[in-house]
Amino acid sequence: MAVQSFQNQSDAPAVASSRTSPSPKISPSRGILRSLFRSRQALRIICYHGVIADELADASWVPEYFVTQSQFREQMQIVQAFAQTVRLADYFKDSKPRGKSSGAGIAITFDDVPACTFAYARPVLKELGISATFYVSTGLVTSRRIPAAEIVQLLRAYPKMQKNASSPALDEICRKPNAHKSLSIETLQRILSRVDGQVLTNAPQEAVHALKPLSWLQLRTLADEGHEIGGHTVDHAILARQTRTTRTHQVAKCYDDIRDHLKIEPTGFAYPNGGPTDFDANDADVLCESGFKYAVTTEAGFCNSTTPKFALPRVCIGVGHTRMRFMLEVSGLLDKRRRRQHGWI
After folding, report:
1. Model-level pTM?
2. Residue ranges of the domains in the chain?
């Protein structure tokens, strides 16, 4: 199962929309990187996790994989200068190529979808006429629980919150980066349940409001505005850390939740964490059986007609991406380094 091709006139305007803001004048370096990107004649998928208010950029609780609204607006303008934007649900609408030749395109995606993204990314997307894809963990949407990774971030930023609920397991995941990612979802939830209440009560309320998941009503709003809603398991469970039964449940129920709450059949899925050891071919089979048409990873790379549809590469963006670093990232010049860093090669 491979990615289908699509037509694109590489010298045409990136997005044909009256709402699109004029892009800044193209600098020589930007022009070179844009030409390099277009020469690949492939699809680039960009991944975000959160977009926050500019004034919160230096807050200790803000994850490094978030960006500010100003960063996001500038990056979306660069995207529109590089190529047309593609909504992945449309790209995978059927199994046949929709164009005689492939072309350069960029898809914008979001994992986890905290409430701050609705507040600060949505207006920019609307302003620039970009349709994006939002991958959600449906159990967190229903419960409005802050995802585990962000709870751990809050506990590290404000260690006094775990003073009365400390345990060896909790101390370990707060002390060791990414330790929580090695646990089953049941174990992780049990450990963090000791401090959930303290986090909600004692963490800065601006952090709580920013990090809590979107509601089903907000997701309905995004869908009505033309954005795609995709799956990200029920509880943001890294599939390879779960039993086979749990893995199947996390995927199948996620699909059913989106269908039942939003009255749509989701097309796409994002593997939580999305690294080379976080999922396998059996998970792809379950995704296909559940009704999903494609899945995205966190392997840096481009998509073309030979790319497996249930292992699509993406490049992840964070607060450390300056204008030049973002353009280098989009152009693909940093892909080999990214794959080496994250164990793909």
Report:
1. 0.90
2. 28-144+213-341, 145-212
